Amino acid sequence: MARGCQTVQLRGARGRRLIYIRAVYLALTDDQQFFQETTRKFLEQEMPLTAVRALVDDPAGFDRSWWKRGAELGWTSLLVPEADGGGSLGGEGVLDLVIVAEEMGRMVSPGPLGPTNVVAEAVAAGGSPELRASVLPGIVAGDVVAAWCLAGPGGAWDGSGVAVTAVRDGDEFVLDGEAAPVEAGAQADVLLVTARTGDELTQLLVAVDTPGVTREPLGSVDLVRRFASVRFDGARVAADRVVGAVNGAGSAVERQLHLAIVLDCAETVGALDRVAELTLEYLADRSSFGRPLASYQAIKHRFADMKMWLETGHGATELAARAVQDDAADAAEIVSAAASYLGDHATEFVQECTQFHGGIGVTWEHDLHLYLRRITLDRSLHGTPAQHRERIAARLLADEQEHARA
Question: Which is the CATH superfamily of the domain at 251-405?
Answer without folding.
Answer: Butyryl-CoA Dehydrogenase, subunit A, domain 3 (1.20.140.10)
